[in-house]
Amino acid sequence: MPERLGPPLDAPLFERVALVGLGLIGSSIARAARHMNLARAIVAIDADERVVARVRELGIADEATTDAAAGVKDADLVILCVPVGVCGRVAEALRPGLKPGCIVSDVGSVKASVVAQVQPHLPEGVHFVPAHPVAGTEHSGPDAGFSTLFHNRWCILTPPEGTDEGAVERVRAFWTAMGSNVEIMTAQHHDLVLAITSHVPHLIAYNIVGTAADLETVTQGEVIKFSAGGFRDFTRIAASDPTMWRDVFLHNREAVLEMLGRLNEDIALLARAIRWGEGDKLFDLFTRTRAIRRGIISSGQETPEPDFGRRREDKA
Amino acid sequence: MPERLGPPLDAPLFERVALVGLGLIGSSIARAARHMNLARAIVAIDADERVVARVRELGIADEATTDAAAGVKDADLVILCVPVGVCGRVAEALRPGLKPGCIVSDVGSVKASVVAQVQPHLPEGVHFVPAHPVAGTEHSGPDAGFSTLFHNRWCILTPPEGTDEGAVERVRAFWTAMGSNVEIMTAQHHDLVLAITSHVPHLIAYNIVGTAADLETVTQGEVIKFSAGGFRDFTRIAASDPTMWRDVFLHNREAVLEMLGRLNEDIALLARAIRWGEGDKLFDLFTRTRAIRRGIISSGQETPEPDFGRRREDKA
């Protein structure tokens, strides 16, 4: 699975791309867009002055400012890379600077709520193409980003009905150039799919790590020492950005609670099988789940190295 | 975190080590023990003729046989590396071959049940030192093993009260030489600690992967495509050996059900916080769990690379 970007484009796709929020995702887009020559100029906008200063030090954008309305001026693509809970407020703040014909997009992990929050603030003649790159790491901030983050990952677009097709195609081309595979679906379906593939796994990981920390019979030192038995893998996603994830759960409430309800039904069956010694039921499930892992590996969403390749270099 | 074994010992710790069951763990012990010169001879015993043939091809043992009683003859260390559900039966089968003074150990992920199953079959003068190396990958079989599997991992010994101290020290030396850190605790405490750090995480991973496969609103193809959002990490441990894990749950029933009950209480609180929009409660938990991740990394049980280093080589 090569993780390299292709050669840069001969001519940029956009004149001026404004990125609002320079965390892991925003700063990765900045790096990838520059590397691939996707914009003649990249403007970094962040409400946090320290982030703006750091972006200047890193040199990953052509301009950097805390002023949203000024920053988006003349941009033909504006991407909101902020927690989904503040999308509406940010859209309102940058509205005065948006030029007619501009495309506004985002990278939020929830889509129906973002559409509801952002759309009312966009003037006539501005195109809204919501996007969600399904990629990330457990690290946050402008230093955590890297240009290959989106390579071989999916990016889901959820344009509301009636969105200008040319605008959708330009956003698609932008993500394709950064190495992503683009899929289009409704915001509602997106929120359901991501609830099970991303949101609920995060909630469960947060939960088990929290529960383990509270036990009175097992010390936290023991939990840490013996984490290699499986717990450790859960802690990676439970180390993800707290603000981002709080907003995801609050803004995809129905789908998350629905999926959680289903998991609870199924775990009750497993608990019953354990209590009554029904080994066959356990064995059948455990065999079935192995096949799904193989599907993920063969689809290129995972490497086949054992233990995530933690010991790859010197497997003896 | 170096993952290299040290130089081999000048003189072997044991004359003859018999390994019963040459899966991931047994075959890793064979490789590490030979690499470190821990035994003058290593005997591989497996009930499956194909495994015995494969062990011969791999050349990871000095002798290989399907005959348990003959294989353990003259061994001064016998290690059961079989699913915990068959420990008693295997101990019964090899009993006629055990020589006085021999040490019997195991590698089971559950300890109280193994003690209860194995001890009645051991003749007077044979020492029983149960062990659990907290290490593994999602792969199985003699080809999956490697000599550094136990390096920098914990191995827990749970000698029953009154066990010969010399025997305990020899088993400790064996694991220390393979790079493990050894800890001693009661079988009961072990089973509680591992329930939360290993058994319940596996059960939850199996459960979510199974539930996702059964959804009628989201296709399995979508689950696989968009797994990079978090789900993917769960599938690794849900790809572990079905027989081994079935036995773990059936033989650590009380602790697993107890820990599962606690998780359910805590997830109910989280679900309620989501339903009522209590963002602060979510944020507080998510902040706390980040700290635990840092503890695991600083204790050397994990590498700090983002996303398990999946893109380590060409992070740009």
TrEMBL record, chains A, B:
SUPFAM superfamilies noted in UniProt: 6-phosphogluconate dehydrogenase C-terminal domain-like, NAD(P)-binding Rossmann-fold domains
Membrane-crossing segments per the record: none
Biased composition annotated in UniProt, kind: Basic and acidic residues: 307-316
Segments for region (Disordered): 297-316
Domain Prephenate/arogenate dehydrogenase: start-end pairs: 15-304
GO molecular function: NAD+ binding; prephenate dehydrogenase (NAD+) activity; prephenate dehydrogenase (NADP+) activity
Catalytic activities: prephenate + NAD(+) = 3-(4-hydroxyphenyl)pyruvate + CO2 + NADH
Pfam name, any one: PDH_C
EC class name: oxidoreductase
EC numbers on record: 1.3.1.12
Biological pathway: Amino-acid biosynthesis; L-tyrosine biosynthesis; (4-hydroxyphenyl)pyruvate from prephenate (NAD(+) route): step 1/1
Annotated family: Belongs to the prephenate/arogenate dehydrogenase family.
Protein name (database record): prephenate dehydrogenase
